[in-house]
Amino acid sequence: MEQYTDDERVEDLKKWWKENGASILIGIALGVLAIFGWQYWRSWRDAQTEQISQAYEVFVAAAEKPDAEYARQRGQAVVTDFPKSPYAALAALRLAKQAMASGDAAATVQQLNWVIANARLDEIKDIARLRLARAHLATGQLTEAGKLLDSVATASLNAEREELRGDVYLASNDPVKARTAYAAAMAAGGSQGLLQIKIDNLAAPTADMIVIAAPVPPPPEAQPEPAPAPAESASVLTEPATIEPASIESAPAPAEPAAVSTPAEPVATPLPPAPTSSGQ
Question: Is there a domain that residue 175 lies in?
């Protein structure tokens, strides 16, 4: 009975293997392929990451040199060849900074818009929005700058966002909102010294300041300080006016020169009578 039972078990195993053996072998093969495939993908990913890192390092080194065109080409190669890599967004940000330094507004906007559309990290996108808002502020596009600032949501960028918002309000001739934005930037941990200077520059003149400002007109009155020269000349002119009467009274004085000339004296000196008295 036991032998029969063992035979039945063997037959059951053979029957089970015939039904499931192929699928088991396929599963084992797939497992082996998956293991080798995972290892291959990891090695390929590491090699790709190393390649991207080296390309980015070449770009950074080129950006430190005077050849701006070569640096732009290296950076653009990183963006074009590896668009899904985090290095591509960093390269585009640096390209935008380089374009802004060279005064190429169109290239600056293009690179920053690419970062906003393709970067994977929200913080990188918000950094690009802040820089693009600053570029719009520099070109007088205040509405576009304000819209970009409204879309910045990264908490670590609140101070920079509010300070830039204050600059936009100031450019829009709205000092009240500018003061509020600067105060919010200070509360968020912005640069206290610079922000305080900006707030102080927004201070409206008080009544005391107006009273003190009133003496400012004396500079025009102080300009006539060289006028004492005319005054002296006036005094000099007045002296001849006082002297003229005396000169009129001493009018006989001009006759003295006529007396000094005395042309009659040669006629009055009788030289001929001397020989008459000694000769005869």
Answer: yes
